Amino acid sequence: MTTIADPKAPRPPKPRPARLTTRGNTELYGWVFMRASGVILVVLIFGHLFVNLVAGEGISAIDFGFVAGKWASPFWQIWDLLMLWLAMIHGTNGVRTIINDYAERDGVRLALKASLYLAFVVVVVLGTLVIFTFDPCPAGSPADLLPSFCTTA
């Protein structure tokens, strides 16, 4: 005789495939990084805003010459570089978490994360290049196109 299982009985859990490798503490490290980088970013951003808006002549003084003068100092280059890198890593990690939480299909998740990482690399590489290769007075430029603080040689 054949018996039919009780439809109200709980179903046995589906067997999960055995993991070949363990995930380790990657998510824990990401969580700790988000908290630490958030604190550091607050200091960097408020320092940036204070120097640019409060300590100087306010927003009216921020122009090409102001940025050129600031980036002439290695201190401000490193400050802005840290701000760029931390903000991009912090933001990318946050968006990665959102993608993992809300993208249900594996293909969509892979495409979104690939786009995110590509955007991250492009912005970080270009931003770093701008910070370290910025020259407000390039040699051989016409004098009428150079800022007033550049000396023509």
Automatic annotation (TrEMBL):
This protein's UniProt keywords: Cell inner membrane, Cell membrane, Electron transport, Heme, Iron, Membrane, Metal-binding, Transmembrane, Transmembrane helix, Transport, Tricarboxylic acid cycle
Annotated membrane-spanning segments are 28-51, 71-89, 110-134
Describe its membrane topology: Multi-pass membrane protein
Is Iron there in the keyword field? yes
Question: Which residue intervals make up region (Disordered)?
Answer: 1-20
Query: Which pathway, metabolic or otherwise, does it act in?
Result: Carbohydrate metabolism; tricarboxylic acid cycle
Q: What Pfam families has UniProt attached to this entry?
A: Sdh_cyt (PF01127)
Q: What role does this protein play?
A: Membrane-anchoring subunit of succinate dehydrogenase (SDH).
Protein name (database record): Succinate dehydrogenase hydrophobic membrane anchor subunit
Identify the species of origin: Cellulomonas humilata
